[in-house]
Amino acid sequence: MVAVADATCVSIPDKVLRTPEARFADLRDYPFAPHYHMIAPTLRLHYVDEGPQDGPVVLMLHGEPTWSYLWRNMIPPVANAGCRALAPDLIGFGKSDKPAGRGDYSYEAHVAWIAHWIEALDLRGITLACQDWGSLIGLRLAAELPHRFSCILLSNGGLPTGDGPVSRAFTVWRAFSVISPWFPIGRIVKTATKRKLGAHEVAAYDAPFPSAAYKVGARIFPSLVPTRRDDPASDANRRAWTVFENWYKPFITCFSDGDPITRGLDRGFLDRVPGTRGQPHATLRGGHFVQEDDPETFARLIIQACARAA
Question: If we measure between CA atoms, which residue out of 85, 140, 124 comes closest to residue 291?
Answer without folding.
Answer: 85
